[in-house]
Amino acid sequence: MSFRKIFTPHLGDPNCHTLEFYEKTGGYEGARKALRDWEPDALIDEVKASSLRGRGGAGFPTGVKWGFVPKQTDKLKYLAVNADESEPGTFKDRVLMERMPHQLIEGIIISCWAVGIHSAYIYIRGEYVHAYQRLVAACAEAYDKGILGSKVLGHDFHLDITVHRGAGAYICGEETGMLTSLEGERGQPKLKPPFPAIEGLFGCPTVVNNVETISNLPYIMEIGAEGYKKIGPESSPGPKLYCVSGHVEKPGTYELPMGVNLLELINDHCGGVWKGRKLKAVIPGGSSAHVLSADECDVAMDIESLAAAGSMLGSAGVIVMDDQTCMVNALLNVMKFYHHESCGQCTPCREGTGWLEKIVHRIAYGHGKLEDLDRIDTVCDRMVGKTICVLADAAAFPAWSFTQKFRDEFIHCIEHGGSPEVKRRHPDRIGGGLHV
Amino acid sequence: MSDLKFSEKGMKKYEWLLTRYPDKQAVLLPALRIAEAEFGELGIPEMKYVADLMGISPARVYGVVTFYTHFRRAGTGTFHIQVCSTLSCALRGSQELADHIAKRLGIEMGETTEDGMFSVSKVECLGSCDTAPMFQLNDNYHENLTLDDVDRIIEDCKKESARGGAR
User: Fold this and answer.
1) Are the beta carbons of A337 and B126 separated by less than 8 Å?
2) CA distance B95 to A4
3) Same structural domain for residues A67 and A190?
4) Chain B contact for A162, CB < 8 A?
5) CA distance linking residue A177 with residue A308, whole number of Å
6) How far apart are CA A254 and CA A269, in angstroms?
7) Residue B141 and residue A167: Cβ atoms within 8 Å?
8) Same domain, residue pair A114 and A175
9) Could you list the pLDDT tens digit for every one of the 436 residues in chain A?
10) Torsion angle defined by CA atoms of residues B108, B85, A368 and A323, in that order, rounded to the nearest 10 degrees
11) Order of strands across the sheet that contains A160-165
């Protein structure tokens, strides 16, 4: 079967975000079909059978997640669409929300019908003002045409969608952090269990799905689970959006079958490493994924293959680094990010991310010691698996993999008075303390 | 006593929001966005107004506002330039961009010009990595920036300000 793009084929049209355009290209047929032909339980089974897995980072099977929501409950049930997209290197959901908002709304209708939900929230990061406006306008169009509201597409099913803006916090991409933020609190994660499917938003059973995950549903309705499963690897099939940034000729969002080869993605689709330079390293799945050295990049971009390669598909945020990149400086940038974004409630994370930044900083700024490399390992050991959410792990993975795979560069910085890039840019700061 | 008050339109929006959530507290973030839009910034009096309006403690509102980075806090310049400085942007020159802006405005990152016109800060990933380097200027993204673009945008802001525009 030849690969058909489902997210990006119409992006060339300036009106692709409108309801008129979306309906002209077959939009809302999947939702009509779901409401007309599918019993909710059978629909959950169909999504399970499709093997659709979450596109936000964890890759959890979507239908299985839906199945965890109690069937018999006195409580209301909610859908919270995770549109916080904050993993560095990730920008695919922004494209979907700005350009294809109705595909998301259609997916929301399908998932809410399956799980018996009448109220959905889209939690969108505060910085995405344009995408927020597009979503609000698309919802207004949908209400106006009876696609949302008291009788969804003319059926005896009511559904409300509320678009909710975040306000700038990486941690709100973590599902329990997002729900806490939606409830009007500081976005601090909560211990699981209870999982959101049992006790989530406002203490009620809640499905949390990523924008891209939900946007797959109309297509599954169209071609069926069997057809969907044939796209890419059987265990994690489907069309996939890859976000490629950093040192390539043509950065951007690329829609390809799950499991595309990473080198093919970089060389054939993105025009190769920029300026004719050579590849040094790639972070394949957002900055919390283990970095791959150039010789590890002949790998399929799917959940299993990247796990086998010792990294992860994560959010499919592919950050490419050329042979002139200073890996010490690159890691310092990543450590600064996690330190800044730690919500502060768990000591191993709050302190650990700070220590990691300080240690990498002093290596970059010319007063690192060889023992610092062991110290990084020790700090990471004390962070991973010891906190409420995985932000600590997300900081430790790059710290480990950068210092292991590019150890020579770290040792060179320690023995030669700091990072060449820092020496060039801040000769006055070499040997100084922490500048943040 | 402060005479801050939502406009009729703002109040209508607030009341509509109350119908969208089963719990009043959940309206806090959206209510703060209304306050931000109507009052221009969130300082102590603005936070106090929202707290009183919602019947929650001002300390709680302050705790929420300061947890997040994207609210427009008191003292921010008319034009707030937020330079994305996370890895993908850093690999494509965000540091040079930030240095240029700071030099051009005569301030350091995190500062505001004396006339209150510009604030500039480095922020973490804005989800626009394929168009690096970039910054957010108030609500808008400016992408694939060169240093010449920066000069032009800063001049445009000054012109807009001279015409009496703000956001």
Assistant:
1) no
2) 40
3) yes
4) yes
5) 29
6) 8
7) no
8) yes
9) 579 999 999 999 999 999 999 999 999 999 999 999 999 999 999 999 999 999 999 999 999 999 999 999 999 999 999 999 999 999 999 999 999 999 999 999 999 999 999 999 999 999 999 999 999 999 999 999 999 999 999 999 999 999 999 999 999 999 999 999 999 999 999 999 999 999 999 999 999 999 999 999 999 999 999 999 999 999 999 999 999 999 999 999 999 999 999 999 999 999 999 999 999 999 999 999 999 999 999 999 999 999 999 999 999 999 999 999 999 999 999 999 999 999 999 999 999 999 999 999 999 999 999 999 999 999 999 999 999 999 999 999 999 999 999 999 999 999 999 999 888 888 887 765 554 4
10) -130
11) A160-165, A119-124, A78-83, A206-210
Paired with A338 in beta bridges are: none
Interface of A with B in 303-322 (CB under 8 A): 317, 319, 321
- Go through chain B and tell me how many residues it has: 167
- Give yes or no: residues A315 and A189 share one domain: no
Give the tokens for residue A26.
Answer: 């077959």
For residue A317, give the nearest of A259, A269, A384, A246 by alpha carbon: A246
Same domain, A343 and A222: no
Whether B107 is in a domain gets the answer yes
- Predicted confidence band of residue B48 (pLDDT cuts 50, 70, 90): very high
Q: Which residues 324-363 of A are in CB contact (within 8 Å) with B?
A: 325, 330, 333-334, 337, 340-341, 343
Considering the domain architecture, whether residues A358 and A417 belong to the same structural domain is answered as: yes
**Chain B residues with beta carbon closer than 8 angstroms to that of A425:** 95
Handedness of CA A272, A273, A276, A280 (dihedral sign): negative
Q: Spell out the residues 6+ positions from residue A54 whose beta carbon is closer than 8 angstroms to its own.
A: A60, A61, A62, A65, A209, A210, A213
Asked if residue B38 belongs to a domain, the reply is yes
Q: A91 and B69 in contact by Cβ < 8 A?
A: no
Query: Do you know the residue count of chain A?
Result: 436
Last residue of a domain, one of A180, A208, A229: A229
Instruction: Give the CATH number for residue A200.
Output: 3.40.50.11540
Scanning every residue of chain B, which has its alpha carbon at the shortest distance from the alpha carbon of A320?
B88
The answer as to whether A157 is a domain residue is yes
Same domain, yes or no: B44 and B98: no
As beta bridge partners, residue A230 has none
Structural domain containing residue A283: 239-322
**A345 lies in the same domain as A207:** no
Residue B152 near chain A (CB below 8 Å): no
Pairing state between β A239-246 and A78-83: unpaired
Q: Which of A229, A258, A292 is the last residue of a domain?
A: A229
CATH of the domain at B27: 1.10.10.1590
In angstroms, rounded to a whole number, what is the distance separating the alpha carbons of residues A219 and A103? Answer: 10
Q: Which domain holds residue B32?
A: 8-67
Distance from C-alpha of B163 to C-alpha of A127, rounded to nearest angstrom = 27
- Say how far apart CA A406 and CA B140 lie, in whole Å: 38
Q: Name residues whose C-beta falls within 8 Å of residue A435's C-beta, 6 or more positions apart in sequence.
A: A361, A365, A429
Q: Read off the tokens for B19.
A: 């119908």
